[in-house]
């Protein structure tokens, strides 16, 4: 196991599968979280809700669980659209280089108060805030990193519905 407590892949990198959800509220805003790295506290980024898929868990089930744990919003499996995007990513976090394979879904939820009750100790230490963003406001305002980098572009396309085309991305740093 690594500092992230993820299994190591054949290349020796911490590696896991994850399920992520781009949540839209009734006004068409998207929910993004802002986090930082404990190892690099001045570095921060915005990202979608989601996290690791547990052993034997389906990505759709993991997405529903992660939304509840990270926001307190209760979705059902049939509330998810997709997967709409699949991404392989390599990134540095907690002083290690890690790899993550991510399944992205779309869902709609009310913009009610969000809960941190289901957050893990690590999430409590590295997630700074969650916010419902107007897509254009987010594009004009967010000055740090955003993952995936083009998620707001995709959000504009998906706000009114999904065209059935799954996007595949590889975000591997050299």
TrEMBL record:
Pfam family, one: NUDIX
GO MF entry, a single one: hydrolase activity
Native source organism of the sequence: Schaalia meyeri
Residue ranges of domain Nudix hydrolase in the record: 14-160
UniProt xrefs under Gene3D superfamilies: Nucleoside Triphosphate Pyrophosphohydrolase
Name recorded for this polypeptide: NUDIX domain-containing protein
InterPro entries in UniProt: NUDIX_hydrolase-like_dom_sf (IPR015797), NUDIX_hydrolase_CS (IPR020084), NUDIX_hydrolase_dom (IPR000086)
Keywords assigned: Hydrolase, Magnesium
């Amino acid at each position: 196991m690594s500092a992230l407590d993820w299994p190591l892949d054949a290349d020796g990198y911490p590696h896991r599968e994850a399920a992520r959800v781009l949540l839209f509220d009734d006004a068409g805003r998207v929910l993004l979280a802002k986090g930082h790295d404990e190892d690099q506290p001045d570095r921060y980024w915005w990202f979608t809700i989601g996290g690791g898929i547990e052993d034997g868990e389906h990505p759709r089930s993991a997405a529903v669980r992660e939304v509840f744990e990270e926001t307190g919003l209760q979705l059902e499996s049939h509330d998810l659209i997709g997967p709409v995007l699949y991404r392989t990513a390599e990134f540095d976090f907690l002083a290690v280089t890690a790899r993550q394979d991510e399944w992205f879904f779309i869902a709609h939820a009310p913009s009610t108060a969000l809960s941190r009750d289901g957050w893990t100790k690590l999430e409590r230490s590295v997630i700074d805030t969650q916010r419902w963003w107007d897509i254009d406001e987010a594009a004009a305002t967010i000055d740090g990193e955003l993952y995936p980098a083009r998620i707001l572009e995709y959000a504009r396309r998906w706000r009114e519905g999904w065209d059935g085309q799954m996007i595949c991305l590889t975000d591997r740093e050299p």
